[in-house]
Amino acid sequence: MTENFQFTLKKTDAGARLGEISMPRGTIRTPAFMPVGTVGTVKAMYLDQVRETGADIILGNTYHLMLRPTAERVARLGGLHKLIRWEHPILTDSGGFQVMSLSGLRKLDEQGVTFKSHVDGSLHHMSPERSIEIQGLLGSDIQMQLDECVALPAEPKEIERAMEMSLRWAERCRVAFGEQPGKAMFGIVQGGDIPALRIRSAEELTKLDLKGYAVGGLAVGEPQEVMLKMLNETLPVLPGEKPRYLMGVGTPDDILKSVARGIDMFDCVMPTRSGRHGLAFTRRGKVNIRNARHAEDMRPLDEQSNCPASRDYSRAYLHHLVRSNEALGGMLLSWHNLAYYQELMQGIRKAIAEGRFADFMAETQEEWARGDLQPV
């Protein structure tokens, strides 16, 4: 641990990077996957379990927490870490994506965005300064700039307008954040699927000399090859000595291919959301536990896993729970999925340290391709 935010790049293996972020509340081993704790909870999980899977950091959501229980109430209660009993680093997003995607009524201008709460219909205004204020009230360790995220596909002029707005908002967020020892603010590269805009966004954000940089506005409906192409264009422009965070990504395959290009941090609701709907991610690929083939299969999802949910519960029981809409089914599969994601990240870090990431990636993809166990 350290009193200041510090990123150390320990080793590279072609494009893949092994590193470490040191902060007062703990160390984040990179490449890192951050479970999403939208409203102060990683859905269907105890945070002690989340920690035991290997998570060094979780994500909280500014939009949801500002509406309920409100940032001011969280601050009065001692901050988000104390409220949820998680004494390790927390990254909060800016709330911009949720304002754009969830609000039924919104008005956006240079000052920020006025929107209608999806909870009770009340009106709120989110400016760059207010976003940083809320994240400060929550006690976030890594805070994100307010940006405008445009769903793809979109017209080039609209993508450029949103990117330029996001750059101006980044400057205002930087001023509002000021100097906070031990904490960090990250900028967000926008620019849709247009390489020239991505490059310009990255160049201008770099001039702000922020503690880290995120790539946003991807995994919003575009094909994987488009996402990877934007990373190929963007990452060489970003400073190599700063952490790089790909927002909202993604599948295990997305993670492998993005690590290969130099991404250090990921977050996604996919492991927990999929778990609640009966889908498991395993070293043998995806397994839909709802399928009838599992109804009398007493084998576990993964006999080699260190996670009790993966190793100690039969597929037959998981199938029964999910088909019966029992909450425990979603809990066990969410636990399994988060453990698998963290085991994948651990394998990635070990492979980079040993200089064999390309082999690890090929072996992992080959095992996925072979598929699940044969039915009993």
UniProtKB/TrEMBL annotation:
Keyword Transferase (UniProt): yes
**Which InterPro entries does its entry note?**
ArchSynthase1/Queuine_TRR, TGT, TGT-like_sf, tRNA_ribo_trans-like
For the biological process aspect of GO, one term held by this record is: tRNA queuosine(34) biosynthetic process
Name the keywords, alphabetized. Glycosyltransferase, Queuosine biosynthesis, Transferase, tRNA processing
Query: What are its E.C. numbers?
Result: 2.4.2.29
Q: Name one Pfam family in it.
A: TGT
Q: Name one GO molecular function term.
A: tRNA-guanosine(34) queuine transglycosylase activity
Which reaction does this enzyme catalyse, per its entry? 7-aminomethyl-7-carbaguanine + guanosine(34) in tRNA = 7-aminomethyl-7-carbaguanosine(34) in tRNA + guanine
Pathway(s) it belongs to: tRNA modification; tRNA-queuosine biosynthesis
Region RNA binding: start-end pairs: 248-254, 272-276
User: Which residues of the sequence carry a binding annotation for substrate?
Assistant: D93, S94, G95, G96, F97, D147, Q190, G217
Q: Which GO terms describe its cellular component?
A: cytosol
What residues does the tRNA-guanine(15) transglycosylase-like domain cover? 15-368
Where is the catalytic site? D93 (proton acceptor), D267 (nucleophile)
Of which family is this protein a member?
A: Belongs to the queuine tRNA-ribosyltransferase family.
What does this chain do? Catalyzes the base-exchange of a guanine (G) residue with the queuine precursor 7-aminomethyl-7-deazaguanine (PreQ1) at position 34 (anticodon wobble position) in tRNAs with GU(N) anticodons (tRNA-Asp, -Asn, -His and -Tyr). Catalysis occurs through a double-displacement mechanism. The nucleophile active site attacks the C1' of nucleotide 34 to detach the guanine base from the RNA, forming a covalent enzyme-RNA intermediate. The proton acceptor active site deprotonates the incoming PreQ1, allowing a nucleophilic attack on the C1' of the ribose to form the product.
Query: Quaternary structure?
Result: Homodimer. Within each dimer, one monomer is responsible for RNA recognition and catalysis, while the other monomer binds to the replacement base PreQ1.
Q: What is this protein called?
A: Queuine tRNA-ribosyltransferase
Q: Which organism is it from?
A: Rhizobium pisi
Q: Which gene encodes it?
A: tgt
